[in-house]
TrEMBL record:
<dbReference type="Pfam" id="PF04294">
    <property type="entry name" value="VanW"/>
</dbReference>
<keyword id="KW-0472">Membrane</keyword>
<protein>
    <submittedName>
        <fullName>Vancomycin resistance protein YoaR, contains peptidoglycan-binding and VanW domains</fullName>
    </submittedName>
</protein>
<keyword id="KW-0812">Transmembrane</keyword>
<dbReference type="InterPro" id="IPR022029">
    <property type="entry name" value="YoaR-like_PG-bd"/>
</dbReference>
<feature type="region of interest" description="Disordered">
    <location>
        <begin position="34"/>
        <end position="55"/>
    </location>
</feature>
<dbReference type="InterPro" id="IPR007391">
    <property type="entry name" value="Vancomycin_resist_VanW"/>
</dbReference>
<feature type="transmembrane region" description="Helical">
    <location>
        <begin position="62"/>
        <end position="82"/>
    </location>
</feature>
<keyword id="KW-1133">Transmembrane helix</keyword>
<feature type="domain" description="YoaR-like putative peptidoglycan binding">
    <location>
        <begin position="249"/>
        <end position="368"/>
    </location>
</feature>
<dbReference type="Pfam" id="PF12229">
    <property type="entry name" value="PG_binding_4"/>
</dbReference>
<dbReference type="InterPro" id="IPR052913">
    <property type="entry name" value="Glycopeptide_resist_protein"/>
</dbReference>
Amino acid sequence: MWYVPIEVPLTLYGEKTPPADDRPTVQVTAVSWPGVDPPPTQAGPPTAGPAGRRSRFRRPRVLLAAGVTTVVLAGAGAYAYAGDVPRGTTVLGTEVGGRSRTAAAGELRAELERRTGTLTAPLTVRVGEKTAEIDPAEVGLTVDVDATVAAAAEAGAHPVSRLVGSREVEPVVVVDADRLDAALRKVMGNQGRKMTMPAISFKGTTVKVTRPKPSLALDPQRSAEAVRAGWLAGQPVTVPLVETHPATTAEEVDKLAAELAEPAVAKAVTLRTDQGSVSIPPAAIAKSLRFSADKAGKLTPKVDVKRLRSALGDKLSKIEVEARDARMAVTGGKPKVVDDGRPGQQLDTATLGKDLLAVLPKGDDRTVSGELKPVQPEVTADKIGELGIKERVSKFTTQFTGGLSAPRSKNIVQIAKDVDGTVVLPGETFSLNGHTGERGYAQGYHDAPVIMDGKLVPGVGGGTSQFTTTLFNATYYAGLEDVEHKPHSYWFSRYPAVIESTIFWPNLDFKFRNNTEYGVLIDTSYTSSSITVSIWSTKIYDSVKTEYGPRRDITKPVTTYLEPGPSCIPANGIDGFAQDAFRVIKKDGKVVKREKFSWRYAAEPRFVCGKKPS
């Protein structure tokens, strides 16, 4: 009787079939049938039956047993692998296993539909000590069905997990983090606190230290994680308030102050160049040594070279030669180059800040070396010739009284001289304050009436606003771009309403931009009673005109009595009103631009220097 061991190849799901001689086998041992001898325990030749005959039925029976085993294994695999999602998989208690992804998604959507009341109910959140309810729809809080089904399919991807057991897959919850954060901030209210950034500054040469403190605020990512995890639990969700500490600690701030800021202003630093030396005093160091904190609160020291140059003032003139631009002037009715300009020499600041920072902690040997490099003028004679400055495109004049000997008239003439001959390149913005700098006694300006706190008082530079208004109108009628201007608080009849501008160092400025492809030359001239500004360039527009709307909201002046004395300047009073002005620009016979300018003037009080009558 033959006993035949059966070897059945077992191929794992997703794996390639190994070579024939390496296939894993399942050995099936034949069972004893009634009346049949047990199989031999050792390999040997087949044995004969009682009558010396071989059994005719043993092999088919053994093959039948092997076939049953194979069918059972194949059937189990087929059952487990039915559908994209393995059997036994549930989401929210709903069976989605044994289905395709599409069918599983449909079953899950049906379950979510049955739970609509729960899923749309307001979610209770706790932020710090405050509790509130949030509408899930308003923050985009929902179950992502497709992502959940994909996760369910992935959860049963391993062959063993498909054959045995069941599994519950958590639904994939999504939320709009930005909308959630906005809603939670309303709940948080004033419970949070901003980060106190570390800082080191100077008051004079005295070091001032601000030690850092952490912020207490919502973290959008952690808030979203908490809400996604707790939404379907049916309980209030606690959203954490997170402390964020600045990158630079209080100890590090104190160390920076002690080891850099304080010794930095203890002594002067000597700057040596080939053209001589300059002493950088502690006050200039204090104005230029900056400690800046980034968004993370990291404090970094740096020498601001621009501030250093400003703090040194005229000291650098001992070693530097300023480059001078080429100049134009109108002679014989035509603009011509009258000065070719010249190159200069300027301190190379590329490494100066770094070199200076290196010696500031030292008590001795506080010396840095500086290099002078050639500097070319911004405007050369050749460049001027290519700018298309060939004709006058606008002109504006205003009148003044008092003659040229009056302080106010002297100020008007002085600022006109400072600006005369200026060339503004295409695309460049001209700043009147930036061009003249501070207008004080040292620059040739005098005391004259200025408006301060709503009344006329003596002040250095009074009258420069009249030049500003004249320049503004000249650029306005040239069609140039208005960048910054501010009309007076009161209207004066010597100026056009609305289209006028005041100026005051350093807070009030007048700026315009050369928005053409040509250069712009500012030409000024004056008489004993007038100031004129002309703009020379290439004419672009047919015309630039002003159309006024009616005056409205007219207010009358009140009488104010002031203490008599040299600082009291009487005034007759002027009506206040609001008005619109429209700049209408035409080109090729058509309106190409219409700009609205509006202003409201206060009524100037009638100032009387004397006591109010009883």
